[in-house]
Design goal:
Length: 146
């Protein structure tokens, strides 16, 4: 009995190691996607609560990114309350970019006027920081879409 066990042990160990190696492959490939899902979820929550100063932490600082919001832009956004945030499914591209279209319903805290804006978000994966960065900045309040 021991001989049979010792004879099959190396083959079982090899099969176990190979199985773990194949299982780890998809996990590594999904890490960018999992990080994107987590980032989009966190960003949506931050945006819904109207924490404009914290939203800026998601912005890309690269040269192709949108210019950072001014103090005026931030104050202007503070006059609006988010009453709806509907995100469409995102699209992830092989070049390290992702896009998502979000419909945002906002209400002015002073006049109670409401409007709907469409935010076309473009995200870039930063390999150094292992984090997704928003390239498109804050949605534009003056237009119905960006």
């Amino acid at each position: 009995m021991k001989r049979q066990l010792l004879r099959w042990l190396p083959q079982c160990l090899l099969a176990l190691v190979l199985g773990l190696a194949f299982a780890a492959g998809p996990v590594a490939a999904k890490s960018k996607q999992q990080r994107l899902q987590a980032t989009l979820y966190e960003y949506a929550g931050t945006f819904r609560w109207g924490e404009v100063e914290q939203i800026v932490a998601y912005f890309d600082t690269g040269e192709k990114a949108a210019k950072p919001p001014t103090a005026f832009d931030i104050q202007r956004w503070k006059q609006w309350r988010v009453v709806g945030y509907r995100a469409q499914p995102y699209a992830m591209f092989k070049d390290g970019f992702a896009e998502q279209v979000v419909t945002i319903e906002i209400s002015n805290v002073n006049t109670l006027a409401t409007k709907t804006i469409v935010d076309r978000q473009r995200w870039r994966y930063d390999d150094k920081r292992k984090h997704w960065m928003l390239m498109t900045g804050l949605p534009v309040l003056t237009n119905d879409s960006r």
